[in-house]
Every structure is written in structure tokens, then in C-alpha cells.
Amino acid sequence: MPRKSRIESASDRHAAPGGTAAVDRALSLLAAYRAGDDGLSLAEFAQRTQLYKSTVLRLLASLEHAGLVQRRDDGRYGLGPELARLHSLYAATFSLEAVVMPVLHALVAATGESAAYHVRQPRPGQTPDWARLCLYRVDSPQVLRDHVRPGDLLPADRGAGARVLIAFGPGPLPAGDRALYEEIRTQGYCARVGDRNPELAGISAPAFHADGSLAGAVTLTMPAHRYDAAAIPAVREAAAKLSGRV
To answer: Does the pLDDT of residue 3 top 60, yes or no?
Structure first.
């Protein structure tokens, strides 16, 4: 009978309800890879998953047989070619709109305010070298609201969405506002009243790619007099739902 680990494994902590333990454990090995890893040793798998080495070895044999990992000459295991095939199928059928829009609709339904998904739009040779693009937007049902449309370019240095794209994006933080952006990073969101327009307020939180890099910002906007900090958790939850899916 397999020994019971004294330490709860990653697969135990994130077990699928009604799922199969062996599958959860195998998937935890794939989840152990981090950005920059070109291969993991048996000891590294065991340390990151809190599974016994003997268990890891059996699971790796199955993953290798399926082409999901491949054993290197140095004994470490890298990701296998089957993942590339699956990624190509996923990329061919993936629709960012189908992922983002339901989350924005739910956020508007929960708050009654307008919700948008903003990304950095490169502008080579210009200063700054990017603008804030409103990629998707769902309007508030209320008559009084701001009127930004999908495809609009917004300032890269003002507004809650811009602040989030700066705080969590690539590149150094602006020296003059470093304390502000460090605070945004620490709290995980930005809430501003009158930042882009004196009559508007916004709450924004970052959504991340699977590798941890910034994907975009989920932003809730409303007239300044309707600003309500109680909406902050809903914005953060919406951004968290998109993280790893965009």
C-alpha cells in the first residue's frame, strides 16, 4: 500500500471535486513547471508537488508515454511535443471575446456600472510607446455613464485602468509616482476618483497570463458621485476569473 505523505501535496490541496486522485497528481506535475524552466529533476518535482519520488516517477512514466513530458539526456524532464499539438488546437479555436465578455456582463449585473477590458497597445517610436486600448466594453444600464467604445484609445498615464497597466506591466515604474504604483501592486487594484476626468471614477484590477505576466486590466467606471468602494471585491474577482485564461 502506498505510503501517506505527512505533508499535504499540491494535488490534494487542489483536487477536482468528483475527480480522480491519480489524474490530479499527474496534472500537478505539469503545473509544477514555472517560467524559465527548461526541465525539472525528479527531486524538483517532488519538492514542488510534495509527492514521494517513487510516485513522481510512476506518474512521469505515464506522462512521457503520452508525449506530455520528455526525458532529457541529463535525466531532467522537459515539456513534451504533445503539448505543442494541443496548444495549436486551442489557439485555432480560442476566442478572447468569448472569455472576456461574460465576465464583464456579470460584473455590470453585479454593480450596475460600466465594465471594460483594457490592454496595452504598442505605439513604436512615440512617447509613451503604448496607449491604453479599450478592447471590450459592456455599458451600464443607467442613463448617466461615460461613453467609451471598444477600440477607443485612452491615456496611458491617467485613469484607474492606466495605473494598473503601469503598475503590473513591464518596464520600470515612473520615478515620480513610484510610491503610488508600489501601493497599487501591494493592494492588487487601483481605485481613483477624478483621475482621467473630474466627473468620472474608476476601479481596476489586473488580469494575468498563465505565465504570470500582465494580460490586461478589468476596469469598472462610473460618475464620480456614484463611486462606491464596495465594488472593489467584485472587480478583483472578475480579474481573477480571467487570469490564466487570457
So the answer is: no
Q: Concatenate the DSSP letters of all residues of 194-219 into one string.
A: SSSSTTEEEEEEEEE-TTSSEEEEEE
Closest alpha carbon to 194 in 234, 231, 222: 222
- Report the share of the chain in percent with pLDDT over 70: 93
Helix, strand or coil, per DSSP, at residue 71: strand
Question: Which of 77, 80, 22 lies closest to 51 in space, CA to CA?
Answer: 22
Angle subtended by helix axes 53-65 and 42-49, to nearest 10? 110
DSSP strands (E only) in the chain: 69-71, 77-79, 114-122, 130-138, 153-154, 190-193, 200-208, 214-223
Counts of helices then strands in the chain (DSSP H, E): 9, 8
CA distance 86 to 117: 27
Q: Are 29 and 60 in contact (CB under 8 A)?
A: yes
* pTM for the structure as a whole: 0.68
What gap in Å lies between CA 187 and CA 167, rounded to an integer?
11
Are 101 and 136 a contacting pair, CB within 8 Å? yes
Going along the chain from its start, the domains and CATH numbers come out as 10-91 (1.10.10.10), 95-242 (3.30.450.40)
pLDDT at 26 over 80: yes
197/208 Cα distance (integer angstroms): 27
Q: How far apart are CA 133 and CA 210, in angstroms?
A: 21
- Residue 222 — φ and ψ, nearest 5°? -160, 160
Instruction: Say yes or no to pLDDT of 78 above 60.
Output: yes
Grid cell 500537478 — which residue?
28
